Amino acid sequence: MIRSKSLTQILKVTRKKSRVLDVEIGRLDDLEKQSKGLREITEMKAKGLKEITEIIEGLRRTQEDSKREDYYEGKYYPSYKYVERIEEDEIVTTEDFKPGMMHSCPDCGSETPVIRYYYQEYDSPEEDIWVTKALAICCDKIYELKKFVRN
Ligand SMILES: [Zn+2]
Q1: Domain ranges of the chain
Q2: Residue 71 above 90 pLDDT?
């Protein structure tokens, strides 16, 4: 026996399927948003770890390069040194490449050495920009404790 279906019945079923698909699409949109958020967090973390690696390798590089006679500190790439103390208008470094001033991490309470970043970030005939920062690293984060920008 052939069952007959009215167009109204078909429409009802179609509408129901369409609603189910709308819910699925909504779920996919949510997933997409979540994965975008996760991607952003992951990218931020990767960037942060790259910056931390640069600082730690930069300390070693600065120590090596500063032995050269033609070394021009901070001119072509950042110089990193341990900080002895932070003054009103100056960040004083230790000259023996040994940690001096320590910073207490707000997350875990560990003490980590304060590091000075020094670099000519901009170079032109009209203007030079030299940036000096006091940084501390802990718990995958970089803390900027002080910053000077000078011409
Ligand atoms: Zn920490």
Answers
A1: 1-151
A2: yes
